[in-house]
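question for whoever is on the cluster today: can someone run the full assembly for these? two chains, 387 residues total. i dont have access anymore since they changed the login thing
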Amino acid sequence: MPPVTPAEIVLMFLAGATGGSLGALLGIGGGPFLVPFLVLVAGLPFRAAAGISLATVIATSTVVSANAASRQLINLRLGIVLEVATTAGGLTGGLTALMLPPSLLRFIFAAVMIAIALVMLTRLNRRNVILDDELDPGLLGGQYHEDESGGVVTYRVKRLGVALGMSFVAGNLSTILGIGGGVIKVPVLNAWCGIPLRAAAATSAFMIGVTATTGAVIYYARGEVVPALAAGAVLGVLAGSRAGMMMGSRARAKWLKLLLALILLAVSVLMLMRAG
Amino acid sequence: MNGGGGSMPESDRALERLQRIVGRVLRAGAVLSTALMALGLVLTLMSLPSAWSDPPLELGLVILMATPVANVVVSGLEYLVERDWKFVLLTAVVLLILAGSLAVAIMQRAS
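^ ran it for u. tokens below:
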């Protein structure tokens, strides 16, 4: 393995910072932007890019979930139930990725991202909060205090089977493609399973660390994750997503998300062309 | 004891405790792994030999990957203390899958 040059580390940090901030602004994590950057600009093989991206997913998950504000939104019980599905999906995804040729991996990545970008374009601003503290949350439901309304939000989990199935798919795509997978399961948990968006997002952010680990250790053991490059990307993504979240809370402009979804679409088309 | 109706405040306290513990594990993992990776990168940027910069980079990455696993472990232990068997079982299944992926990783390394 050739030694890593300072220029490469700086490139990784910048790639991570860019991917992390765009991903945080759009609420989909750094992966969807970082992986194409690593493949198309840095010229890394797909699995190396996915492995590095998974390391950044774990770091983002860890830092976001350690934050006290998001911690009370995390539904730990639901998390462990769905993690059975996401880790099973993650492990099979990691195994699948080893068997598929890189060109097919690039194609799957592009196809999934194009679908995600299109879905994002159709639901740019959705929220769903039920204010009812009389409701019995049941075994897997939850409760949290919402600052803006000052009320307690209580929810029950509906259609657990759907949540489990989608979690498996999200875990699978997570380790194959090097993305967190929250973008796949959060809309479903929210729209179909009755979980408020913030609780769904916080619980998903918590789960993706465990999910990504199933794939990350496999890529790492194969020597596809160069530690110096991964470290640069991890620190970049952490810095970038912090900046992105600050920008996002200040300017929650719809057009910005529109623009970013279009960028994601364009990047995915580029990946698709590389796949051919 | 968690049978029957299960008093709400009791389980609330247990859940809060678990949230605190999980938060602590996450914070420790985040601080330790990012500090080691930053140290390794600084050493690399100073063009020091890789014998110096590689150990902190590798250790940082390993701690990063171990943090979510540690989290699952402490959650499982906490459910065990609470005798919440359903969740002990679920946590064990997740750990088993994580062990499976580690086994695949070790086999990849060996081959």
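summary bc i know u wont read the tokens: Chain B has three helices and no strands. Chain B touches chain A through 48 residues (CB under 8 Å).
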